[in-house]
């Protein structure tokens, strides 16, 4: 066959190709526009330096969550990698890779990085969202320095390089080799099983025999929400660990996630919550579209908040061989809006604790520096330094390890945790798809109010409760490793009793604005610890809504989602 020709395609910049919290996310019709995706991919490839390419064996890992437009995007990326002088691309079979699996494969194969095709928990299908996200050689999301460079490139792009004649057979495992005109070396595409490397990694972290023995005695229900996790659930949980086949629910990846919102929370995974109410299952878990998020439920639908989940895993990490082997955890971290339960564990165990802005990328430097082992976010993300993405399946395996070691149910484990460390009540109110103008106005008003000279010391009351402001700011973070500074990461009001109210605009939406209101409040009184979070936090929620004028400005009486 004649060498594949490298074609230079003339193009002009698109506005707004700025990667958000987690890559560039836009509605599918936008991505399908001529040159739109190619511009962004070229900008990404152009920002990988020669040194990075060399250190990464001139290799990239590519795959995604199976959503609509993904296969086309994979073919296009492969063609552009060939034209841009990459020597090898490792692709999951049929383009399928969970986000944690990409992170695992980048690290295992010492690749220069990876391109993940996902819009995570956003709906899919022809009118849903699509996304392209770049991960660097440590396996984690590109830090802001890199995403800013990519964004800058998109603003002046004039052409991109592509080999239109290359087409990969995404279904066949093994290598496919192509000659590229003008390039001395062949271009290799390796199609790998989507689960193999990830499964091997799980074997290294967890004790499969123990988990298998547990799963012989209890029932689990794992809802993949028609996202990418189906093959992982079936292979690891069912085939390897012996969970019964009917434990795997919605485990066939669909390009529109069955028309649902593939987000594992109490609203969008309500089916799981209802199924758990039957009392038949000891553990219920759900994953988002790309498999990095998770939700953990106990029998009867007992909900473990993500903020509690990471704290429980941290407190019990001696049950997991990976941490046991290395003499325990080096450090813990959470994102700023995440409830403070993990802080209590860190204090109790004498382990260093870090608070970072929202976004998994902020954990990467700490992990690379050997300062952080376990971390989590309120946004249903839990993980450790085994990779550089949050890892939904890892969280499930961690819970199974703890249940097996402690010989206790999810609810018993959580109750024992609260009894020992106290309980941080936590809730998040989401107002999705609000008009951007009033949302920005509200944030500006709140910032002005809380940074005003007389705000500290002010008292706010609702019913019988009164809270006095101890501190308030727009959260700013200085990375302790590289000194980089991230400003405007969320408006927070801290009260004297340790309670916090936080306002933040989502960085993952694709249209309008999503306002998030987070409330965190600590309770040591054992008599109150089992009360309902919504009841306990009501006064603070009302205070927050009133001082922000959220209802008045947005016209929203109720949040779209409460977690
Ligand atoms: C993604 C990131 C998380 C982050 C979340 C925040 O899932 O991977 O690390 O917590 O986005 O989403 P938001 O919509 O609140 O910006
Ligand atoms: Zn995700």
Break the fold down into its secondary structure elements and pairings.
Elements: E1 7-10, E2 24-27, H1 28-32, H2 36-46, H3 50-55, E3 59-64, H4 70-83, E4 88-96, H5 99-108, E5 113-117, E6 129-135, H6 144-156, E7 159-162, E8 174-178, E9 187-192, H7 196-205, H8 208-215, E10 220-223, H9 230-240, E11 248-249, H10 270-277, E12 283-287, E13 294-298, E14 302-304, H11 306-315, H12 321-325, E15 332-335, H13 341-349, E16 353-356, H14 361-368, E17 374-377, E18 381-384, H15 392-406, H16 410-421, E19 423-434, H17 436-450, E20 459-462, E21 465-474, E22 477-478, E23 485-486, E24 491-495, E25 500-505, E26 513-523, H18 533-548, H19 550-554, E27 561-562
Parallel strand pairs: 3-4, 3-5, 4-9, 10-11, 10-12, 15-16, 15-17
Antiparallel strand pairs: 1-7, 2-6, 5-6, 8-9, 12-13, 13-14, 17-18, 19-26, 19-27, 20-21, 21-24, 22-23, 24-25, 25-26
Helix pairs in contact: 2-4, 2-6, 8-15, 11-13
The chain binds 6-O-phosphono-alpha-D-glucopyranose and zinc ion.
Please identify the oligomeric state. Answer: single chain
Structural class given helices, strands, pairing? alpha/beta
Bound molecules: 6-O-phosphono-alpha-D-glucopyranose, zinc ion
Strand order of the largest sheet: 2-6-5-3-4-9-8
- CATH arch. level architecture of the largest domain: 3-Layer(aba) Sandwich
InterPro entries: A-D-PHexomutase_a/b/a-I, A-D-PHexomutase_a/b/a-I/II/III, A-D-PHexomutase_a/b/a-II, A-D-PHexomutase_a/b/a-III, A-D-PHexomutase_C_sf, A-D-PHexomutase_CS, Alpha-D-phosphohexomutase_SF, PGM
EC number: 5.4.2.2
Protein name: phosphoglucomutase (alpha-D-glucose-1,6-bisphosphate-dependent)
Cofactor: Mg(2+)
């Amino acid at each position: 066959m004649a060498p594949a020709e490298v074609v230079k395609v003339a193009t002009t910049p698109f506005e707004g190709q700025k990667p958000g919290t987690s890559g560039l996310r836009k509605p599918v019709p936008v991505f399908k526009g001529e040159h739109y995706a190619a511009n962004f991919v070229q900008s990404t490839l152009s920002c990988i330096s020669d040194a990075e390419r060399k250190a990464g064996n001139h290799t990239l890992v590519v795959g995604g969550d199976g959503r609509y437009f993904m296969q086309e995007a994979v073919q296009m990326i492969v063609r552009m990698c060939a034209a841009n002088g990459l020597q090898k691309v490792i692709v999951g079979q049929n383009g399928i890779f969970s986000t944690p699996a990409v992170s695992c494969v980048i690290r295992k194969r010492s690749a220069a990085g990876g391109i993940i095709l996902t819009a995570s928990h956003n709906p899919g299908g022809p009118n849903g969202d699509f996304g392209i996200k770049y991960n660097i050689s440590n396996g984690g999301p590109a830090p802001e320095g890199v995403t800013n460079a990519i964004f800058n490139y998109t603003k002046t792009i004039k052409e991109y390089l592509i080999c239109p004649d290359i087409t990969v057979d995404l279904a066949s495992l093994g290598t496919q080799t192509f000659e590229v005109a003008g390039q001395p070396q062949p271009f290799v595409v390796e199609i790998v099983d989507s689960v193999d490397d990830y499964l091997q990694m799980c074997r290294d972290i967890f004790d499969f025999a123990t988990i298998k023995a547990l799963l012989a005695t209890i029932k689990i229900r794992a809802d993949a929400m028609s996202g990418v996790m189906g093959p992982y659930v079936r292979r690891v949980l069912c085939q390897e660990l012996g969970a019964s086949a009917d434990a795997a629910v919605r485990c066939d990846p669909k390009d529109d996630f069955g028309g649902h919102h593939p987000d594992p929370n109490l609203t969008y995974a309500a089916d799981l919550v209802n199924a758990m109410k039957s009392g038949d299952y000891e553990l219920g878990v759900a994953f988002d579209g790309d498999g990095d998020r998770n939700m953990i439920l106990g029998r009867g639908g007992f909900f473990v908040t993500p903020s509690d989940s990471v704290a429980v895993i941290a407190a019990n990490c001696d049950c997991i061989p990976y941490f046991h082997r290395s003499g325990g955890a080096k450090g813990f971290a959470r994102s700023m809006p995440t409830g403070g339960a993990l802080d209590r564990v860190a204090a109790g165990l004498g382990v260093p604790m870090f608070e970072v802005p929202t976004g998994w990328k902020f954990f990467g430097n700490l992990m690379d520096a050997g300062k952080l082992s376990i971390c989590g976010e309120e946004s249903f993300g839990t993980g450790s330094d085994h990779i550089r993405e949050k890892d939904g399946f890892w969280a499930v395996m961690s819970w199974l390890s703890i249940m097996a070691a402690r010989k206790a149910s999810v609810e018993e484990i959580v109750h024992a945790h609260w009894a020992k460390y106290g309980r941080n009540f936590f809730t998040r109110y989401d107002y999705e798809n609000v008009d951007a103008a009033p949302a920005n106005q509200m944030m500006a008003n709140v910032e002005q109010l809380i940074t005003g000279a007389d705000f500290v010391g002010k008292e706010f009351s609702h019913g019988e409760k009164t809270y006095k402001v101890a501190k308030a700011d727009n959260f700013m973070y200085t990375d302790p490793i590289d000194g980089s500074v991230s400003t405007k990461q969320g408006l927070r009001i801290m009260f004297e009793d340790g309670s916090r109210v936080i306002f933040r605009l989502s960085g993952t939406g694709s249209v309008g604005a999503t306002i998030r209101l987070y409330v965190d409040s600590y309770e040591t009184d054992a008599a109150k610890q089992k009360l309902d979070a919504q009841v306990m936090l009501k006064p603070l929620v009302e205070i927050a809504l009133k001082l922000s004028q959220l209802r008045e400005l947005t016209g929203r009486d109720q949040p779209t989602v409460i977690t």
